[in-house]
Design a protein that fits this description.
It is built from no helices and 11 strands. It is an all-beta fold and about 130 residues long. It is globular and about 40 Å long.
Amino acid sequence: QVQLVESGGGLVQAGGSLRLSCVASGRTFSDYAMAWFRQAPGKEREFVAAISWSGGSTHYADSVKGRFTISRDNAKNTVYLQMNSLKPEDTAGYYCAGRLYYSDYDVGLSTSYDYWGQGTQVTVSS
């Protein structure tokens, strides 16, 4: 089992920045590919970004490309999401997720991830 705990969410003005963190415990963190998803009220959960075990491969949704950066520190069992140039449409609950393989083919398929955190809320005001 892997436990994931997100933090770093909050209220920020449009154009601002936030850094989300997701700390893992329970199993070897470096075995897992990690991802961030988000879900706004009344909308389906959508893929944001993913990173491979080593951090050597990353993948982003078109809507965040160039603004968000995913990274990881395996020594700290932590994956990060640096969010810059935030927009009101980025407002959502943000969730980290983990699975035992990395593939660009289905990186955005939420059902392929085995472990999920409880989420952290990001609200961007206009």
